[in-house]
């Protein structure tokens, strides 16, 4: 069975980074390509609930995007609004994603992982994943969760049938 290549978009939420200094978004873009998927869009937006929501809503609406990866804005500071921005857009939340991410992240950052509001869900046959803004967190999420769950050949189950 051949692997299904998915179309993905990456959004970096940051008040301080540019596309040139965005190592987290670059890491996700690199992993997407390395694993045979297509990066169809990549943007950077300031930490603003309505701007984040508008971009994600547009991507969810586009039939050519099956996965949206967001990096940044998942902590507890007043500026961290990514989970709040996407919550109304998600039809189904994937509770196990955040739980597993924090479990894996604990091995790397210890109890600081409890400050992550990493979340994933489905909307309009699109998987939306919100990750912390650190490059390490993006590596952990891709290498230890997303790579397999976005691989149509991964058994016993994966999310590809739900989004393609």
TrEMBL record:
Which stretches make up the MoaB/Mog domain?
A: 9-153
Q: In which pathway does it act?
A: Cofactor biosynthesis; molybdopterin biosynthesis
Keyword set, alphabetical order: Molybdenum cofactor biosynthesis
Ubl conjugation as UniProt keyword: no
General function of this protein: May be involved in the biosynthesis of molybdopterin.
| Family according to the record | Belongs to the MoaB/Mog family.
This protein is called what?
A: Molybdenum cofactor biosynthesis protein B
Record the organism: Marinicella sediminis
């Amino acid at each position: 069975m051949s692997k299904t290549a998915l179309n993905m978009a990456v959004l970096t939420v940051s008040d301080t980074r540019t596309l040139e200094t965005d190592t987290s978004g670059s890491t996700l873009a690199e992993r997407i390509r390395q694993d045979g998927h297509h990066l169809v869009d990549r943007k950077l937006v300031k930490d603003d609930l309505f701007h984040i929501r508008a971009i994600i809503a547009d991507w969810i609406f586009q039939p050519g995007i099956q996965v949206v990866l967001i990096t940044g804005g998942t902590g507890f500071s007043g500026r961290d609004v990514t989970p709040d921005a996407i919550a109304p857009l998600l039809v189904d939340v994937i509770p196990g994603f955040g739980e597993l991410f924090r479990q894996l992240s604990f091995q790397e950052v210890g109890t600081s992982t409890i400050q992550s509001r990493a979340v994933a869900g489905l909307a309009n046959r699109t998987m939306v994943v919100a990750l912390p803004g650190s490059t390490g967190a993006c590596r952990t999420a891709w290498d230890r969760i997303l790579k397999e769950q976005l691989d149509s050949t991964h058994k016993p189950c994966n999310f590809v049938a739900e989004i393609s």
